[in-house]
Amino acid sequence: MTTTQRPPEEQQLPFNVFAKACPSRGTLEHVTGRWGALTLGALYEGTLRFNELRRRVDGVSEKMLSQTLHALERDGLVHREAQPTNPPRVDYELTPLGREVAERLLSLIHCVEGSMETVLRSRERYDATRGAR
């Protein structure tokens, strides 16, 4: 069995996201935050320009998308390509690591989307018995 196939408790990894000072914790936040996950998922479909990406990730502000892209680029998940044109053209695409992470995120996203009827019924039951908060 390879390292990636072992259960998490058996893996001997050099980083531990559960440790307060571990640098992997910041990357996990960038990847699993609302805008990070949606940005990676959108870029999985292919290379996009900033405004195309902003339209695809409905609801994200220009500032938040810019911050998200900077963080994902710094972590090596997104590649930014600036073209020397007038006006400037900037394309964003996933790196190989970004594609791997996005694939896993998309599996989670599809699981959530496919379970929404169950989730909504559960919310209704919860709200009916405990009241909406």
From TrEMBL:
Domain of life according to the entry: Bacteria
Keywords per UniProt: DNA-binding, Transcription, Transcription regulation
Domain HTH hxlR-type, first and last residues per copy: 22-120
UniProt key word Iron-sulfur: no
Gene3D superfamilies referenced in this protein's UniProt entry, alphabetically: Winged helix-like DNA-binding domain superfamily/Winged helix DNA-binding domain
InterPro entries (alphabetical): HTH_HxlR, WH-like_DNA-bd_sf, WH_DNA-bd_sf
Record's keyword annotation contains DNA-binding: yes
Alphabetized PANTHER family for the sequence: HTH-TYPE TRANSCRIPTIONAL REGULATOR YODB (PTHR33204:SF37), TRANSCRIPTIONAL REGULATOR, MARR FAMILY (PTHR33204)
Protein name in the entry: Helix-turn-helix domain-containing protein
Annotated source species: Streptomyces virens
